[in-house]
Amino acid sequence: MAIKNSIPMKRFRLLAVFILVYMVSLPPDGLADPEMPSNGDCITKFETGTVNWTTGMITASGKASPADQSPASKGLVSLYARAEAVKNILETLKQIKINNELTVNDYASKSFVILAGLEKTAREATVSKQIYTSALAVEITLETSLFGGFLQLVLPEEIRQIPKINPEINPKSLPVIGKSPYSGLVIDARGLGIEPVLDPIIVSEQGHEVYSSVFISREFAVQNGICKYVCNLDQAIRDKRIGDNPMVLKGLRKEGSKNATLVISMSDYLVLEKTTERHAFLNECRVIIVRD
Question: pTM for the whole thing?
Answer without folding.
Answer: 0.79
